[in-house]
Each structure stands twice: as C-alpha cells, then as structure tokens.
Amino acid sequence: MQKFKNKVALITGGTSGMGFATAQEFIKEGATVIITGRSKETVDKALSNLGSNAIGLVSNAGKLSDILDLQAQVKIHTDKLDVLFVNAGYGKFASIETADEAHFDELFSVLVKGTFFTVQQMLPIMNAGSSIILNTSFVTGFGIENFSIYSAAKSAVQSFIKTFSSECTVKKIRVNGISPGYIKTNIFNNTGLAPDQIEGAVAGIIPTLPFKRFGEPSEIAKTVAFLASEDASYIHGIEILVDGGLSNTK
Ligand SMILES: NC(=O)c1ccc[n+]([C@@H]2O[C@H](COP(=O)([O-])OP(=O)(O)OC[C@H]3O[C@@H](n4cnc5c(N)ncnc54)[C@H](OP(=O)(O)O)[C@@H]3O)[C@@H](O)[C@H]2O)c1
C-alpha cells in the first residue's frame, strides 16, 4: 500500500539533490508533491522528470517577499499540506578572516530566516497529523575549518527543531529533522569552487568516510519519508543523522 496516497507534500529546494530525490520518493508512495526552486528553468526541468503528480513553484527561500507569497501560491493548488520538508539551501565556506558580511547575511537569510518564515507561513495550512521535517547537517557536531557561518546557521535550524516541536505539539503536528552527512548532490556547485577544486575536495573526503562513499540522495529521501509517515507517529522533536557513521568516527 502506498504510504502517502491523497497526501500533499511541499518540498523547498526540490529541483535537485535530496529535495528532488524526496519528491520522487513521495510520488512513488502516492503523494502529490509541490517543489520550489529559484528559477523557472530548474523548476521546469525537475517537473519534466517528476511527472504529472508534481507541481512547481518559483520561490527564493532567501527572499522574505517570496516566502510571504508562498502560502497563496500553494493555495492555488491545495487547501492543506500533509508534509513540509524545509530543505532549500547550500553551503559557502570561508575562514574567519575572509568571510564578509554578504557571506554571513546570505547563508543566514536562506538557511535560518528562510526556514523560520517558511514554517511560519505554511503552518496555517497544516492540520493535525501533518509533519514538518527540517534539513540540518552533520557539520553542527564538529569544528570544521572555514565552516563557521554555515555550521552556525545549521545549528540555528537544529534549535528550531526543538522549539517548533514544542510549539506544534498542541496542533498535533510533528516536527523533526534530518542531519545528512556527505551526500552526492549539487551542493558543491554553490560553493564558488572550480570543478577541479570540487573534484579534489571530494577525492580528499572519500577516504575519511566509514563506507568510503558519499551517501545517495535516495538514502535521505527514504528517511524523510519515514519521519513523515505514520510509522514515525511517536517521533517528535528529534533529528536523525544519516551520515554513514561519520559522526561516530571523529
Ligand atoms: N550534500 C550534502 O553533503 C549536504 C549535507 C548536509 C546538509 N545538506 C543540506 O541539504 C540541503 C539540500 O542540498 P543538496 O545537498 O540536495 O544540494 P543541491 O543538489 O544543490 O540542492 C539544493 C536545492 O535547494 C534549492 N535552493 C538553493 N537555494 C535556494 C533558495 N534560496 N531558494 C529556493 N531554493 C533554493 C536548489 O534549487 P534551485 O537551484 O533550483 O534554486 C536545489 O533544489 C541544503 O539545505 C544543504 O545545506 C547537504
């Protein structure tokens, strides 16, 4: 039996990587999925691969006016959401000395402000029994050089899991998080690194990973689907690490 028959899921940042894989997983399980992305081009490309049970919206998670308009855009297609996966984002990395205000504001806008206001704006169309999942990162557990701003932003999202879950208990909306390890997505494309630098970074990381491989986006998607499903009906306010054991080895 399909787990999400007649359910509607909104996935922010659903045009590639984990968001796209999660959209595929929910559609496979019977859901209608609404994805967001920053450009019509990326949204349309994803829709052409997801098929007729997907709807696409252009909405920038780093732009408050877009987020304030998102509920109205979603309501054109549905009165209610059963699942909200707040996933849109990317990383940029710089040392304490070289990071500037623009870098700080950019990451905090997309990851912290974006997450907060997306949840705020979607809550009115989420009913009892629905589920919110926030995407954090394994990096919050470590002191990785050049990651200070990205890790701080993801730590704020981690904090939202706790506060949002407390506040949503009365609404019977479960709130949880997923904390991915290194996952094979387009994330490095937003870092400003050249392709050969990305290749070099990936080649340097793989030997440090317990399974000697990056995680697949589908491995995140299946965990998000679990957290959103009835199988997780008593799971609330926690974060699941999907990092192939990396956090255990440091
Ligand atoms: N890959 C990893 O190793 C890793 C590990 C831990 C956590 N994460 C987190 O996982 C999430 C998903 O990233 P990914 O790894 O799947 O990378 P990805 O393949 O680059 O996907 C990122 C998605 O977010 C969207 N996006 C980025 N900025 C956006 C914005 N301002 N507004 C709306 N959509 C936006 C992108 O859409 P458009 O390009 O179409 O706008 C795309 O759909 C991010 O929050 C990232 O920080 C990644």
From TrEMBL:
InterPro entries: NAD(P)-bd_dom_sf, Sc_DH/Rdtase_CS, SDR_fam
PROSITE patterns: ADH_SHORT
SUPFAM superfamilies: NAD(P)-binding Rossmann-fold domains
Domain of life: Bacteria
Short name of any one Pfam family annotated for the protein: adh_short_C2
PANTHER family, per the entry: DEHYDROGENASE/REDUCTASE (SDR FAMILY) MEMBER 4, DEHYDROGENASE_REDUCTASE 4
Family stated for the protein in its record: Belongs to the short-chain dehydrogenases/reductases (SDR) family.
Protein name: SDR family oxidoreductase
Species for this entry: Flavobacterium cerinum
